[in-house]
Design goal:
Length: about 550
């Protein structure tokens, strides 16, 4: 097998860094051939007769056979030299051992020839901080202190507080998904977001993500399932955008097994051939369903917690996310199932029906450690400065999503604008301008406003047209002024009661509004007691709204 240029670069970088480091890692997006790279590394390693055994470790049975078969394809000379160590299979006499980490228990470690293992490769390296991997690494350090180690992953970050910095100090080579697409090695991603009438603030957290039982209670009902399937029919269904008579080949993710079964039934009720599987699906049935899906026998495969790793179906051209998550790792894994190239496949559609992408952009930065930056002392600021400072906090969280609306978005976050709905208008800010989109009849209008400069009209027309033009204006503002920061969803700001400064500023704006309209009883849309009970986040939205309203009232008052 001929390696791609970046795969050759990755192999060279690994061997380079082994001159100084014992443990190194590479990060390559799903579909770019991580297994090809480590297979080439193994092939070169065993050419040196001074090097003894190689051990490849993974956490799922499917990954073991995939690794073995790929090594045979990349390095044919390995035929007959690769053994499996999993369950009752103990082929430890081979030059290369592909092992399940679950089989590397404290009781079974003595069965392994660890003193002969000169190279350890850990697949899906983001799992390495787990106890099983740490136990294996400790035992290997004791048996053979000079061993080398390579970790490979598509997601060099974790959803918990266990960073990778304690295991590895650098990434030898990184090929992120965006670069893979730009260079033509991955299918382009296109996103469609469908807002549902659900409130995720009621969902508890568990291990850094949504509690699945709570999640199922609001996601898995008939109304949401109908909305979900109708969205698929609209954007990925038969003959839509060249999809063919059966629609796009779609991998659908759900929060629970029951939700997988139910949404499958809804697809079928709409005349769409769909099948589902979960961790309890018998192995033969699972293999058969995935084979038939991969061959195009039916368009929709629904799953709960099965297809995030160790599964490849290049035909997949739609990822339907009925499984909201706060985990960057899980989100990237799900979307990555659709990035592989396939004949006739022009892109992969990400159907995000629950607002995931507002909270999990596909990132390329590999954080090797966990923890937060210390905050410096804040200077005393004016109410307006304090309001503008709150807008750019980089932390994100879950927001209320109301109404049903389909919005096309850029999966990479090239349009990072988050709109907040209040008083039937959309509000956001870049920390300098306050932006607002309002509707009269069927016509939408976008404006920007500041107390000191007044209101400026940006665009009038359909919602999609106005939304696009206003967001382009916002992004242009950000690019030209690096100190400006977007208003974002923030869990901390949403959990804290608004400050007295905010309350006083909102009260001042109400007075300004009444003065501008020459109406001492003009209704701003909020009472002072309502504002007092709001969070910092909600009050920031109200202040941006009131600033825009004051500026608009002043404009109307001009002769």
């Amino acid at each position: 097998m001929e390696l791609r240029p970046y795969q050759i670069e990755a192999t060279e970088a690994i061997y380079n860094d082994w001159n100084e480091e014992q443990i190194v890692m590479i990060s390559m997006a799903t579909g770019l051939g991580k297994t090809v790279v480590f297979s080439d590394v193994v092939g070169q390693f065993i050419q040196d007769q001074n090097n003894r055994k190689v051990m490849v470790v993974a956490h799922r049975k499917e990954l073991l056979t995939q690794a073995r078969d790929k090594m045979y394809a990349v390095v044919p000379s390995l035929k007959g030299q690769i053994g499996i160590y999993q369950g009752k299979t103990k082929e430890t006499d081979k030059r290369v051992i592909v092992a399940s980490v679950q089989s590397c228990t404290k009781k079974r470690l003595p069965e392994l020839p660890l003193d002969e293992v000169d190279l350890l490769i850990i697949d899906e390296f983001h799992h390495a901080p787990a106890a099983g991997y740490k136990r294996l690494l400790d035992a290997l350090r004791e048996a053979n202190p000079k061993f080398k180690c390579l970790g490979v992953t598509a997601t060099p970050f974790r959803g918990d507080n266990l960073g990778l910095g304690g295991l590895v100090s650098k990434i030898s080579y990184a090929m992120p998904i965006r670069k893979g697409i730009d260079e033509g090695y991955l299918a382009p991603l296109r996103g469609v977001q469908v807002e549902l009438n659900v409130d995720f603030n009621s969902v508890r957290s568990s291990h850094g993500d949504f509690n699945l039982d709570d999640l199922a209670m609001i996601i898995d009902d008939e109304q949401q399932r109908e909305v979900f399937v109708n969205a698929w029919l609209t954007h990925a269904g038969p003959f839509v955008d060249g999809a063919g008579e059966h629609g796009r080949s779609t991998a659908c993710f759900t929060p629970t097994v029951a939700a997988a079964e139910h949404i499958t039934a809804t697809f079928i009720s709409h005349g769409v051939k769909a099948e589902w599987l979960c961790g309890e699906t018998p192995s033969e049935e699972r293999t058969d369903r995935l084979r038939r899906f991969g061959e195009g026998d039916f368009p929709v495969i629904v799953n709960c917690g099965v297809l995030t790793e160790g599964w490849d179906a290049p035909r997949t051209s739609c990822i339907a996310l009925m499984r909201p998550t706060k985990s960057q790792v899980l989100y990237v894994q799900m979307v990555g199932r659709g990035t592989r190239l396939f004949e006739g496949k022009k892109d992969c559609l990400v159907l995000d029906c629950v607002g995931n992408t507002k909270n999990n952009t596909l990132i390329t930065v590999a954080d090797l450690s966990s923890g937060k930056l210390d905050e410096g002392q804040k200077e005393e600021k004016t109410p307006l400065e304090e309001h503008e400072d709150l807008l750019g906090d980089p932390s994100t969280s879950v927001c209320k999503v109301k109404g049903f609306e389909s919005i096309e978005f850029d999966i990479f976050g090239r349009s990072p604008v988050v709109w907040f709905k209040t008083q039937d208008v959309r509000v956001t800010s870049d920390g300098y301008w306050n932006y607002l989109i309002y509707q009269k009849g069927t016509i939408f209008t976008g404006i920007k406003a500041r107390i000191d400069t007044g209101v400026h009209f940006i665009e009038t027309g359909s919602l999609a047209q106005v939304n696009k033009t206003v967001e382009c204006e916002i992004i242009s503002s950000l690019n030209s002024n690096k100190d400006r920061r977007l208003m974002v969803n923030n869990r901390w700001l949403s959990s804290k009661r608004c400050s007295e400064k905010q309350l006083a500023f909102a009260n001042t704006l109400v007075k300004m509004l009444r003065s501008a309209t020459n109406n001492p009883s003009a209704n701003p849309g909020f009472t002072l007691s309502q504002v007092r009970s709001m969070s910092i986040q909600s009050c920031s939205v109200v202040i941006s709204y009131l600033i825009s309203k004051v500026c608009y009232a002043r404009l109307l008052a001009k002769p």
